[in-house]
């Protein structure tokens, strides 16, 4: 099992690295590049769904901090796979997410808003947290601004 978890951590960080390398394609003027981005994020979203089926949410305790953050990046970019985002959101709401409380709250707000769910309670909770220097957290509409 330890070998499987180590391999899973490598797989998640590799997917996030591929995501970063390809992210410029997301807003390209070239439809072929946009399609390549969509295919990549769909493939990664599908795999994340399989991982959640087998392991639950890949927490930092399970796969390490870097791989846990990679999993959340993959979930965020699975914006055409709302089922994946809903599952990730549900697991994070249960406190099983890979990130510190303030950041988890910000990200939950982002996904809640993207899914069209009511996020006002999350926004209020996040506004009361110290979210770190240079970031004021979300406003009442879930938008983020710099200090």
Give the SSE layout.
Blueprint (H helix, E strand, L loop, with lengths): L1 H21 L8 H25 L4 H4 L1 H13 L4 H12 L7 H15 L4 H8 L20
Helix pairs in contact: 1-2, 1-4, 2-4, 5-6, 6-7
Give an account of the 3D structure.
- The chain is an all-alpha fold.
- The chain folds into two domains: 2-99; 104-147, no CATH class.
- 67% of the residues lie in helices and 0% in strands.
- It has seven helices and no strands.
- The protein has helices at 2-22, 31-55, 60-63, 65-77, 82-93, 101-115, 120-127.
- Helix 1 packs antiparallel against helix 2 and helix 1 (2-22) crosses helix 4.
- The model is unreliable at 118-147 (pLDDT under 50).
Distance from N terminus to C terminus (CA atoms, Å) equals 45 Å
Count of helical segments? Answer: 7
Question: How many discrete domains?
Answer: 2
Percentage of β-strand residues: under 5%
- Please tell me what the overall shape is: globular
- Please identify the structural class as seen in this structure: mainly alpha
Name a few traits of the molecule.
147 residues; mainly alpha; 2 domains
Give a short synopsis of this structure.
The protein is mostly helical and 147 residues long.
